[in-house]
Amino acid sequence: MLSKKDMIIIGLIFALALFSLFIFRFEEEEGSVQRAVIKLDGEIIEEIKMDDLEKEKKIYIEGPIGESIIQLKEGKVRMLESVCPNDICVHTNWISRPRQTIACLPNKILVRIIAAD
Amino acid sequence: MELRKMIQLSLLIACAIVLHIIETMLPVIQIFFLPGVKLGLANIITLLALIIFGFRESVSVVALRSILASLLIGTFFSVTFFLSLAGALGSSMVMGIIYTLGKNYFSIVVISVLGAIFHNISQLLLASVLISQIEIFVYLPYLLLFSVPTGLFVGLVVKYLLIKVEFR
């Protein structure tokens, strides 16, 4: 199936990919307070502390093609509804850990969880 | 252009369009928080065109396939279309360059894996421009991990196609 050389090269590529996983991991400092950052077209429009979210919260964002609804609940965030055609952002479902990201390209929205003090 | 070549190229484009559309029908695999991992079936035809005809032909197959398939699906000129075009063009160009310069050093399978990787990179580059934030690259390591198995799959399909099917 694969020659030995192929396996070595593909193994190297895989190792590099794994390595990049750790580079991205160490890039940000770890903090105790988790915050959800919501950006629209590159600008931060809302920053919410995840800890004091006992009640459910919904945020309505007017993007270039229409309205998207972000839902925050019990330390988790998700895109509840969006006008975008492919709904990738909605299918991403809940995110709850630092560095996890929801992106909605058609509506230019990015939701990110950061951990900082 | 020779008639035979023209017909073969259009057949390849037709196959690529079918594979592209089939792929959009498949359920998108949702792993962790990734925006969706795809097999890259149409890349089989890109690689075939590259090996049978060459660099220029494979890029034109890719461009025509992306445009025609998006017209059939109904995503023409939408964000999805531009993303798929960017990924397809980026990966086909990288594969073409690697194949023409170093086909003695790299096998088809390796070229396919590299193509899958550059598909993701060029797609994320365009995505970061569209959404005007570079943070979207947090997806890159995860996508790179998945481009190894998907690239392997495509590369192996092409390898056995070339053995089993006689072209020309």
List keywords for this structure.
heterodimer, A: 117 residues, alpha+beta, mini-chromosome maintenance (MCM) complex, domain 2, 4-stranded antiparallel sheet, 3-stranded antiparallel sheet, 2 helices, 7 strands, 38% strand, B: 168 residues, mainly alpha, 6 helices, globular
What can you tell me about this protein's structure?
The complex is a heterodimer of chains A (117) and B (168). Chain A has 117 residues and is an alpha+beta fold. Chain A has 2 domains: 1-30; 33-116, mini-chromosome maintenance (MCM) complex, domain 2 (Sandwich). In chain A, 23% of the residues lie in helices and 38% in strands. Chain A is built from 2 helices and 7 strands; from the N terminus they run αβββββαββ. Chain A has helices at residues 4-26, 88-91; strands at residues 34-40, 43-49, 57-62, 67-73, 76-81, 101-104, 109-115. In chain A, the strands form 2 sheets. In chain A, strands 2-1-7-6 form a 4-stranded antiparallel sheet. In chain A, strands 3-4-5 form a 3-stranded antiparallel sheet. In chain A, a hairpin with a 4-residue loop joins strand 3 (57-62) and strand 4 (67-73). The longest helix of chain A is centred in the first third of the chain and has 23 residues, at 4-26. Chain A is globular and about 55 Å long. With 168 residues, chain B is an all-alpha fold. In chain B, 74% of the residues lie in helices and 0% in strands. Chain B is built from 6 helices and no strands. Chain B has helices spanning 3-25, 43-52, 55-73, 79-102, 108-130, 140-164. Chain A binds chain B through residues 1-3, 5-6, 9-10, 13-14, 16-18, 20-21, 23-24, 39, 41-42, 84-86, 88, 91-93, 95, 99-103, 105-106, 108-110, 112, and chain B through 28, 30, 32-36, 75, 78-80, 83, 106-107, 109-110, 113-114, 117, 127, 130-133, 135-136, 138-142, 144-145, 147-148, 152, 156.
